[in-house]
């Protein structure tokens, strides 16, 4: 599958305040970036590695008080969907060093607080079937409510309120997976079926020696999501970070399938 991405965003910022952008489709073995063009108006750009070595981020230092960004890309996906029911969990002592951090709690995914609930409700399952059951529970227990959360909302907040957006759904599943001793990371990307069109958040779990995408919202899948980056939670891969407060002016994400 080939996806076309077109992003336009504008924010009002403090003059010359550096902005860290995590918006570019990552170049990986599972997705080939055919075209990529980033334009940031009147700004100096400085490129760095993405969190966890996945993809690239860019520091944009604008000259004035407006951050205007236009990004377009074309990406071909080579990532097949998989059947979670067939995937086994790895033993702790067999986990690679770069996977181990995704077993631990993070600020927005306090997985240690989920251990009693996960043990009680999913303790009879293992591996992929356990992840599938936890994903199904999250999808049925939570309602998708735009505007119901913010950047400080944790997985526990969402678990208690029973509402959120893709970011919150992903935080809950990440927390449950880690509570079950299955490594899980928060992943952002672009999907053609995401509604409303925007940056999208999913979970990747480590099963059978590889990372596998799970989208609790059902709006994307491994085969049709163009991954931007991954981290412990949304704090690691926020699409925009600034030192001072940034005010929203406009933002539009368009993702379409290409022949």
Poorly predicted regions are none
Number of separate domains = 2
| Biggest sheet details | 4 strands, antiparallel
CATH topology of the largest domain: C8orf32 fold
Find the structural class using helix and strand composition.
alpha+beta
Label the CATH architecture of the largest domain: Roll
What is the name of the CATH class of the largest domain?
Answer: Alpha Beta
Chain-averaged pLDDT: 96
Euclidean distance between termini CA atoms: 8 Å
Overall geometry comes to globular
Instruction: State the order of secondary-structure elements, H for helix, E for strand.
Output: EEEEEEHHEHEHEEEEEE
Rg value: 18 Å
Say how many strands there are. 14
Beta strand %: 35-45%
Q: Spatial order of the strands in the main sheet?
A: 3-6-1-14
Residues in helices, as a percent range: 10-25%
Number of helices: 4
Written description of the protein model:
By secondary structure, this protein is α+β, with helices and mostly antiparallel strands. The chain has two domains: 2-78 and 239-258, Immunoglobulin-like (Sandwich), CATH 2.60.40; 84-236, C8orf32 fold. 17% of the residues lie in helices and 37% in strands. It has a four-stranded antiparallel sheet with strand order 3-6-1-14, with no helix packed on it. It has a four-stranded antiparallel sheet with strand order 4-5-2-13, with no helix packed on it. A four-stranded antiparallel sheet has the order 11-10-9-12, covered by helices on one side. A hairpin with a 6-residue loop joins strand 4 and strand 5. Helix 2 (127-141) runs antiparallel to helix 4.
């Amino acid at each position: 599958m080939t996806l076309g991405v077109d992003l336009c965003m504008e924010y009002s910022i403090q003059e010359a305040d550096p902005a860290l952008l995590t918006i570019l489709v990552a170049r990986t073995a599972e997705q080939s970036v055919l075209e990529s063009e980033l334009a940031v108006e009147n700004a100096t750009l400085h490129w760095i590695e993405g969190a966890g070595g996945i993809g690239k981020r860019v520091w944009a230092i604008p000259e004035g008080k407006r951050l205007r960004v236009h990004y377009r890309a074309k990406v071909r996906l080579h990532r097949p969907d998989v059947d979670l029911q067939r995937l086994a969990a790895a033993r702790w002592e067999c986990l690679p060093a770069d996977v181990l951090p995704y077993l631990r709690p993070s600020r927005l995914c306090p997985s240690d607080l989920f251990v009693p609930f996960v043990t009680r409700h999913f303790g009879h399952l293992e591996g992929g079937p356990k992840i599938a059951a936890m994903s199904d529970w999250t999808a049925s227990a939570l309602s998708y409510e735009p505007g119901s959360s913010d950047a400080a909302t944790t997985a526990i907040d969402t678990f208690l309120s029973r509402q959120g957006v893709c970011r919150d759904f992903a935080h809950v599943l990440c927390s449950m997976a880690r509570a079950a001793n299955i490594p899980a990371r928060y992943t952002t990307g672009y999907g053609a079926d995401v509604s409303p069109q925007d940056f999208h958040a999913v979970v990747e779990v480590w099963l059978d020696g590889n990372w596998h995408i799970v989208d609790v919202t059902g709006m994307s899948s491994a085969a049709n999501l163009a991954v931007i980056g991954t981290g412990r939670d949304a704090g690691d891969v926020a699409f925009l970070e600034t030192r001072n407060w940034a005010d929203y002016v406009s933002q539009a994400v368009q993702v379409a399938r290409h022949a």
